[in-house]
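Table S5 (text form). Sequence records supplied for joint modeling of the two-component complex.
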Amino acid sequence: MARIIGGVTSSHIPAVGNAIANNLTQEPYWKRFFDGYEPAKRWLRERHPDVVIVVYNDHGLNFFLDKVPTFALGCADVYHNADEGWALAPVAPFKGDAQFSWHIAESLVQQDFDICTCQEMKVDHGFVNPLRALYGTCDPWPVTTIPLAVNTVQHPVPSANRCYRLGHALRRAIESYPDDLSVVVLGTGGLSHQLQGERAGLIDVEFDLECMDKIANDPEWMTHFSNSEIMRRTGTEGIETIMWLVMRGALQSNVKVVHKHYHAPISNTGAGVLVLENYN
Amino acid sequence: MTWTRHDYEDIPGTYVFDGRHAHAAYPLNKLLFSLNSEDNRKQLERDPAAYCDKYGVTGEFKELVLTKNFLGMLRAGANIYYLAKMAIPRGTSVQDAGAAFQGISTQEFQAKLLAKGAGLRERLAKRGGYWNG
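The corresponding structure-token record, covering 413 residues in total, follows.
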């Protein structure tokens, strides 16, 4: 039976990928941010999951605004990165697991999460940068991945509560798969940031830290906020933090907090890394 | 025909990208999305007006593209992520855009961001449980 060993969170901003590609990770601006990933990297090396399910939002690479699925699951054996308009060299393709994906899709739909299935899915910086930060830039990648895209770009976007419930359904989907796989769920994006408008540059450190502590130990707290309340506090792009709740919902209610790392600012954002482990 | 009101509309200095913006600026965002392709970026460079026509970008929106008015495009409903596909290769970062929205220099904008991290280690130590290298 497949089992979830834990969850990880990471910012996914483009600047993270640029810093890695340009060997800037030990520069003064970046050092503390990247050094705080080391315990998470170590945990992944030691626990060595077979599959990482990456919860992220597409920023206009795979999806355009003509069709915007609220939740979309990659159901392919391979996922390609591609030019997002900045002429950067794509990273190596990611190996998927179509059988496992289709099982998850079937289970989610049976549980009333009517997810969009994608047999071709280009993955952008939202998916790639957390994996680069946690595994380094690899070719081939050392882990099988499954993309789970959440619309956080064009409102209406799903509520924090809905994302948390999706996590619960995801857990049941994973745990009902017969193969003996160990799985980590990676929640990406956040924390507070706003890129546009006169309020651009907003970072709310106190709220970010409260979110990290509550998501670890009292995740229901976050599900009581409306999206308007979350955006008011954390900025329009801070709404991405709802994707952490998909990760958290997939774990047991009580988890071991292996690692907590917060840094601000990185580019325009407050950036948090959590490593949470299921007890069995 | 009325656009539904939302309780996020009174958040100051904030433009939530919803159906209202997505609908009004659909051709512009479609043009911006097309810039994922190198060929398309070259076509836009060669003949911006013809490229706008190809995507049905007209009137005020076309003027904004022709004058490379990134701030104006954002205000008119360009999605920030889609706009980045045009702005970043032309040397305008999201921090430049944020600074322009506030009428300050990018350096001032970056200094304001850095100030948010003031005393961070002490704050983390006070909360406890954080890696604090």
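Note: The longest helix of chain B spans residues 106-116.
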